[in-house]
Amino acid sequence: MSKELEPLADPGLPEHIHRKADTDPIAAKRAERQVAVLFSLSAFGTLLFIYSFFFVKEDQFIFLPVMGSTNAQQLGIGIGMAMSLLFIGFGAVHWAKTLMPDQEVIAYRHEMRSDDADRGEFVKAAKEGAELAGLGRRPLIKRSLAAAAGLAGLPAILLLRDLGPLPGNALNETSWKTGTRLVTDPGDRPIKASDLEVGGVAQVMPELPAGKKRTLEDIAKDAVLLIRLRPAEFQLDPERLSWTHEGIIAFSKICSHMGCAVALYEQTTKHLLCPCHQSTFDVTRAAKVIFGPAARPLPQLAITVDADGYLIAKQPFTEAVGPSFWERKS
Amino acid sequence: MSARERIAGNVANYVDERTGAAAWMKKNLQKVFPDHWSFMLGEIALYSFLILLLSGTFLTFWFDPSMRHVVYEGSYQPLKDVEMSAAYASTLHISFDVRGGLLMRQIHHWAALIFMAAIVVHLLRVFFTGAFRKPREFNWILGIALLTLGIVEGFLGYSLPDDLLSGTGIRIAHAIIQSIPVVGTYLSFFAFGGAFPGEVFIPRIYIVHVLLLPGIFLALITVHLMLVWYQKHTQYPGPGRTEKNVVGYPLMPVYMAKAGGFFFIVFGITAFLGAVASINPIWLYGPYTPGQISAGSQPDWYMGWLDGLVRMAPPIETYLFGYTVSWNILIPGLILPGIIFTGMALYPFIESWMTGDKREHHLLDRPRNVPNRTALGVMSLTFMLVALINGGNDIIATHFDLTINQIMWFSRIGIIVLPPLAFVITKRICLSLQRADRELVLHGKETGRLVMLPHGEFIEIHEELSDAKKFTLTQHEQPKAIELVKEDARGVLNPKGIRARLQARFSAANAENIAKPTAAEVKELESGHH
């Protein structure tokens, strides 16, 4: 390196400065007492824990500034435990900082690399080992072993086969059939068009045959949202308009993006919003996506009324509800 | 010899005669560790992991990982007689009918948040100081693996109670699995034992959460620490510190007391948070049902960036040859995270290729002295931050009186524009800081004291730095750009063509630095010249 580019010289480790406790026995004694006080505070925390655990009633609340009304037992055991741990820590660190040696020492590093002799011997040993096994000379053993080992992995994968059934047509089907009555959720009562006022929203489910219980898997596909507008507010093609009844329009409540419940309806804008990823659907235009990551409108359920005036499904959903999947027919 | 010493001696003798541990212990009890506050970050992660094991074991004594339907009969009145899964009911039981149960739940959840935060900050420290360089590349990869598994483990953990919020999270995970081309539908049916939500998912993720992943964690953490031990810790530059030594305090007694004490402090702080700061009050959410949801659904923070990416994705889905591909889920949910984590894992090798530096490094970099790496780090952070902000767009919108649309468009544009901008700005700042360092070494600290010279000129007194400080500011190496060899002496074209040109370009960008002061320059100024 040329003289001009020479870096600054290393002045070496700075001189060690003694702490007060190193030289003054009174200061050292004081530090010792401080550590002992910290450890005693920890013991006090444990006592607080024990007292709160056994003697504070579970339903006793106390009022604290900032926190408001707080369960006294929860707070007592929590703070007690926190103190019992914290002050052991504070004590130990204070001890290390005031009374244990604070002179830095130097250790030397070695390069990670082994020396050449060791490396040479290692390579030799590995080669000799391979030579003795004779893999290179016996290709039949090598190849049949590779094939067998590869195949032996198959059972491990096949064993996982019964984790679940094959999908079949499950994702394309819901409980909605032609003529299925719409029932309130919760309550399971059939409803009439007059039960829903203009501007109103209701969650409905398909009526189940007597004795059958609704499962969460059913809800995950069947949940439908009814919204009633003034018929003139719709901007639908004639077919979709015929799927509504007296201004009542029905959509799958399961988001077409990732399957959350599309639960937020804004009356003034007539928008449905999914709280998970904010996909926004325009109710007046057959739940067209107007904002957010969803790529498809919510599937619309065609509805009408039966002879008794109860709302029923005119036909099943014409497409799969919920998030997309590979085999989905769009 | 006192009785106590005699007993200790006997025990030591007994153990050593059977294990030969004395030689190893002698060497390792005096193991030297350098001291710096930023070296505690990894420790916090380690201690949080231990707290998670302890508090998690406690929770397993009561938690029932079953989706069997039960009717709640516990002491929390608002949910009395409500039908729910056994998992949710037992979580309520832990919260209301087990003394200390709620405290332990909260400690467990807080410890998980601290665990992830500590891992991320520790990773940033390692990245920005260049601690990942040779010979520590393996440990960097182990760290990335721990971070990735930590995200999965945390997600599975907060999914277990089967409340309305966590069930919604599982719903989204289900949609991501289902969106995988070709096999997604099958994978989701296998994972959930049929249609969503089914009755097997929670028991399955339970065993992954309490046995499989913690086991992998223990193994990886052990290797991570053994490598730190064996390779010896890196140290910051300073007088007396070189690539060949390590300066610090011995394990026994200083670090045993400090590290042991620090474990108790981390545990104590976590317990304090668990005692006073309510987290995940699942009883307010109610049991999960796919037909309901609460507004403002948020994942835990370490998943927030992922949710933010999903939220800002444009609504693109293709239907070709009879098959549907949801790019709006695939890209933000799987492809981008895959690229990000693979890129992170490979970074030590990428940097070593860009700089052509294959040597061992034990002295840490000051971030300003490696402007390119620092800028790259800030650029990546900016990307994650925009994604994270968008993950909370609904909360931000309600708190700051903005519309979700405004935040979403800010994020969609910002995620593309802001990271490169952050790169350029950071690089400029680093170079300015290098310039400031140079000034400091050559001209000393500004004191603010103005002096009028006899002939009327005003000057400010500069205070000269100590030799130690000057050395610290100039100890680093400044890399030289790799010279591009287009063709060798005999006119043969470099077979590495484009790769060599790219490498030359990267290394030139890396070599862009403010020349540090040399001994000669400092000497010249010291000899009275101002």
Tally of separate domains of chain B? 2
Low-confidence stretches of chain A: none
Helix content of chain B: 55-70%
The spatial strand order of the largest sheet of chain B comes to: 1-4
The termini of chain B sit apart by: 67 Å
- Return Rg of chain B in Å: 29 Å
Question: Total helix count of chain A?
Answer: 7
Measured by DSSP, the beta-strand proportion of chain A falls in 15-25%
Oligomer: heterodimer
Secondary-structure arrangement, i.e. CATH architecture of the domain at 172-313 in chain A: 3-layer Sandwich
What name goes with the CATH superfamily of the domain at 172-313 in chain A? Rieske [2Fe-2S] iron-sulphur domain
Tally of extended strands of chain B? 8
Q: In words, what does this structure look like?
A:
The complex is a heterodimer of chains A (330) and B (530). Chain A has 330 residues and is an alpha+beta fold. Chain A contains seven helices and 14 strands. The two termini of chain A are 71 Å apart. With 530 residues, chain B is mainly alpha-helical. Chain B folds into two domains: 29-289 and 300-312, Cytochrome Bc1 Complex, Chain C, CATH 1.20.810; 366-478 and 513-530, no CATH class. The longest helix of chain B is centred in the C-terminal third of the chain and has 40 residues, at 404-443. The N and C termini of chain B lie far apart (67 Å). In chain B, 41% of the residues are buried. At the A-B interface, helix 3, strand 3 and helix 6 of A face helix 7, helix 8, strand 4, helix 10 and helix 12 of B.
